[in-house]
Amino acid sequence: MNKNIINFISTIILAVVLSIVLPWWSVMTAALVTSLFIPLKKAAVFVVPFLAILSLWTLQSFMLSIGNDFTLASRISELLYLGGSPYTLLLVTGIIGGLAAGIAAVLGKQIVLVSQK
């Protein structure tokens, strides 16, 4: 399999496992660890973990919101001036998680590069 796909899947699996015992920042730990052990090149270092956690958090928040007919998501999106759209809030949630994971993965890549010298 391609390293990008392996990194994508392993980031999601590790993030789900770590989120059982750790708070929200466990996605950063998952992205850092996978970038240490499954090296990627160029922009894929940021993009692959970003997309993995974006899809994971968007799906998780969708599954949680569907249970209450998006009532809470609608109210929170009004508080955040997102126009009252719960789907916009789900997307923003995924983007925030993806940015955190992507930055952590870049840090992992930098650690690998520094340790090789």
Briefly summarize what is shown.
This protein has 117 residues and is an all-alpha fold.
State Rg: 16 Å
Give the overall average pLDDT. 94
* Strand percentage: under 5%
- Derived from helix and strand composition plus strand pairing, the structural class reads mainly alpha
Overall outline: elongated
SSE run: HHHHH
Number of helices: 5
Number of strands: 0
Structural features, described:
The protein starts with a helix and ends with a helix. The longest helix is centred in the last third of the chain and has 31 residues, at 86-116. It is mainly α and 117 residues long. The mean pLDDT is 94. The radius of gyration is 16 Å and the shape is elongated. Helix 4 (71-79) crosses helix 5 (86-116). It is built from five helices and no strands. The chain has one domain (3-116).
